[in-house]
Amino acid sequence: MAAVDFSLDVEGAKSLPLVLGSIGRVLSDWKPISRPLDKLLRQNMEQIFDGEGLGKGVGAPWPRLDPAYAARKAMLAPGKGILEFSGRLRRSLVFSNASGHIGRVVGKTGFEFGTSNRLARIHHFGVRENNLPSRLILKFGPGTGADIVELFQQRLRHEANAARTGE
C-alpha cells in the first residue's frame, strides 16, 4: 500500500474541529466523488487502449498479435488495435453507459471499477492452453494514484470550506 502525504492549513483554532469533521465525512462516504472517480478511471482505460497497454505511468505494451491472427484481423477489422476487434471490450471500460461497464460505490468507502465483459478476464490473464498471452487491461500507475488523491483533496477542500462558512 502506498503512503499519501498531504498538508492542511487551518486558519483559527475554532475552524480545526470543523475541518477535522470534514475529513471524516469525506473519507467515510465516497458517493460524492463516485462520478469524477469513474470518469478518471475511464480516461485511464482510454489511455491504456490507445497505447495498446501503455498508459499514464504504466509499464510495458501488450504483446503483439500472432502473425497469422494479425493478418486475418487486418482483413476483417482493418485499423482496429489490439483487443479491439469488435470494440465492445474497450467501450465497456471507457464509456459509462456502455454495456458491461462497472463504476460504482460499494458500501460507503469502496469503489468498484471494471467490466462484466467475459473477454476482459480472458485477455487480462491469458489462456496458456490456447497460447493466448496475458494482456493486462486493468492497470493503474502512480499518475492515476496521484489523480485519485487529488480528487479526495478537492472534495476535502470543498467540505472544509463549506463547514467553515456554514454552508
What does this entry show, briefly?
This protein has 6 helices and 2 strands; from the N terminus they run ααααββαα. With 167 residues, it is mainly alpha-helical.
Structural descriptors:
single chain; 167 residues; mainly alpha; two-stranded antiparallel sheet; 6 helices; 2 strands; 48% helix; elongated
Description:
The protein has 167 residues and is mainly α. 48% of the residues lie in helices and 7% in strands. It has a two-stranded antiparallel ribbon. Helix 1 (15-28) crosses helix 6 (142-165) and helix 2 packs antiparallel against helix 6 (142-165).
Poorly predicted regions: none
How many strands? 2
Helices, by number, come to 6
Radius of gyration, in Å, reads 20 Å
- What is the string of helix and strand elements? HHHHEEHH
Tally the structural domains.
Answer: 1
Strand line-up of the largest beta sheet: 1-2
Helix/strand-derived category reads mainly alpha
Write the layout of secondary structure elements.
Layout: H1 15-28, H2 34-50, H3 67-76, H4 88-94, E1 101-106, E2 110-115, H5 118-125, H6 142-165
